[in-house]
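Tokens in:
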């Protein structure tokens, strides 16, 4: 039995077998011949083709089940490549010339991809990349190097990885993943946030855990205390099973109070809202008693896919959430892409310091078509509920002015076409850069509300990368330097009769809530599963 300590980022106990997620790079395929019999090589390739077919079909099926038709079409095309007669012929010719199975596949697919690329057509150019994608899958299967996809997890397991990107986690099969353990990451990394939103126990920041356990090693993950036990003995398993049962009992008690509206003894109403990343989370938020949505991270619709969602797709997603929440507020945050949320198809230039680069509103103000499409979708959906718009990563007032003028442009375009939308939609900003907090009195004049994003505000105040566990000791929301910025922001908004909420992880931290209430916070927005705990805590103590 071995015990590891990390950072507990999503509460709950998971007991199950490890699944090592270690996407390996493919070696370079050289132009080599071998003495293996041609029949043997054909068999190897056929086997790899069948395995590839099963993998692609299973991704295709999952996307159809998730209603992701457009992405599913891509994989449908991938399946067709597996039976392409001209590619098969090229492979056979190369095998007959004595080339290795991997080189035959590499060369045949590459030749076809190059032929397609010669044609001056953007759509066909993309197909060339699809061909290369399929080629890589086949070669991985010939070499027995697993394809990196968490959507292929076959049975219940605990994922153990060096790190998980937001795209990796977007593909998680939540029915099969019991827990997450990673070497890198901190409590505010997006992996942590997503794990919590999905209610999956998770521990991050355990150095070399991927070398310490094997596939199928029995694991216990204690997401509250940041503990992972490998090969536990029977008494330990018993202790954790009891703990799991106790947690489940506590949940029953929370059921009773989670739908309450909170008012402190001094008569101040405090709304407890939810942070969500997609329409499916909205259901979880409602079930957990959210008084509304305090942060809808719209960028998740843009992750883990090969092209941006259309205006129509975005409209449908926003409409779904708004309809679910009826007259309850839904704060839709415009795109926060960049930083650790990179999107290959947007061709964002590589930056040395992406967290300090063209991220969020900065990207939207540069790529106005992307921004306008999103604003149009939000405005069109606005008639289905009670939305508010929020801009992320505002540093200076000019950014609000620019974003608002684009918003006005979109409004007048819609008006001229007779498309209905809510005219008086509120517009607020995230306060997550120290300059915004320090200048909150000025910015308050330009907005309807503030929402403090402590995940980034801490990162930028203490110069501590939110994804780097080595500097996680600096991640202290109760540090006086941070509390000053929070207090300053709340007071500035109140001076102008406006509200300040908080949607960073600090908002759901029971150790921080007393301070926040004392400073006059109006709303707390958190991962849905934390809402019942926060409501009980505030009801019992204030
Ligand atoms: C924050 O920075 O606190 C925040 C809520 O935004 P995100 O975590 O999406 O950057
Ligand atoms: Mg942020």
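Residues out:
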């Amino acid at each position: 039995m071995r015990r590891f300590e990390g950072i507990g980022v999503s509460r709950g106990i998971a007991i199950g077998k490890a699944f090592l997620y270690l996407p390996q790079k493919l070696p370079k395929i050289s132009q080599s011949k071998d003495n293996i019999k041609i029949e043997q090589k054909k068999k190897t390739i056929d086997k790899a083709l069948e395995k590839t077919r099963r993998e692609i079909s299973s991704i295709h099926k999952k996307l159809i089940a998730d209603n992701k038709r457009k992405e599913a079409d891509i994989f449908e095309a991938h399946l067709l490549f597996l039976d392409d007669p001209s590619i098969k012929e090229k492979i056979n010719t190369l095998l007959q010339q004595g080339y290795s199975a991997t080189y035959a596949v590499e060369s045949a697919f590459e030749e076809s991809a190059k032929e397609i690329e010669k044609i001056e057509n953007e759509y066909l150019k993309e197909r060339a990349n699809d061909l290369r994608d399929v080629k890589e899958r086949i070669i991985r299967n010939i070499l027995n190097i697993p394809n990196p996809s968490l959507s292929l997890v076959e049975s219940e397991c605990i994922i153990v990885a060096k790190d998980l990107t937001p795209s990796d986690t977007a593909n998680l099969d939540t029915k099969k993943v019991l827990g997450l353990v990673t070497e890198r990451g901190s409590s505010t990394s997006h992996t942590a946030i997503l794990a919590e939103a999905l209610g999956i126990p998770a521990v991050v920041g355990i150095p070399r855990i991927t070398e310490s356990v094997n596939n199928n090693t029995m694991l216990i993950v204690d997401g509250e205390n940041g503990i992972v036990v490998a090969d536990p003995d029977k008494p330990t398993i018993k202790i954790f099973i009891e703990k799991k049962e106790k947690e489940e009992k506590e949940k029953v008690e929370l059921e009773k109070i989670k739908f309450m509206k909170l008012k402190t003894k001094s008569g101040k109403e405090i709304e407890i809202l939810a942070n969500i990343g997609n329409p499916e989370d909205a259901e979880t938020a409602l079930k957990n008693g959210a008084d509304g949505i305090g942060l809808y991270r719209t960028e998740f619709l843009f992750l883990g896919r090969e092209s941006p969602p259309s205006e129509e797709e975005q409209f449908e997603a926003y409409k779904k959430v708004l309809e679910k929440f009826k007259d309850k507020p839904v704060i839709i945050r415009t795109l926060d892409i960049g930083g650790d949320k990179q999107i290959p198809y947007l061709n964002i230039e590589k930056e040395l310091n992406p967290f300090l680069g063209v991220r969020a509103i900065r990207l939207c103000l540069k790529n106005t078509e992307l921004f306008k499409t999103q604003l149009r979708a939000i405005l069109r959906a606005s008639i289905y509920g009670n939305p508010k718009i929020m801009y992320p990563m505002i540093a200076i007032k000019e950014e609000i002015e620019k974003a608002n003028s684009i918003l006005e442009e979109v409004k007048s375009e819609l008006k001229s076409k007779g498309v209905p939308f809510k005219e008086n939609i509120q517009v607020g900003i995230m306060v997550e850069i120290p300059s915004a907090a320090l200048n909150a009195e000025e910015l308050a004049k330009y907005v309807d509300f503030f929402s403090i994003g402590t995940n980034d505000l801490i990162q930028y105040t203490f110069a501590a990368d939110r994804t780097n566990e080595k500097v996680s000791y600096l991640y202290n929301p109760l540090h006086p330097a941070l509390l000053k910025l929070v207090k300053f922001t709340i007071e500035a908004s109140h001076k102008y009769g406006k509200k300040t909420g908080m949607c960073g992880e600090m908002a759901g931290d029971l150790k921080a809530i007393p301070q926040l209430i004392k400073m006059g916070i109006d709303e707390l927005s958190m991962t849905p599963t934390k809402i019942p705990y926060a409501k009980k805590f505030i009801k019992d103590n204030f």
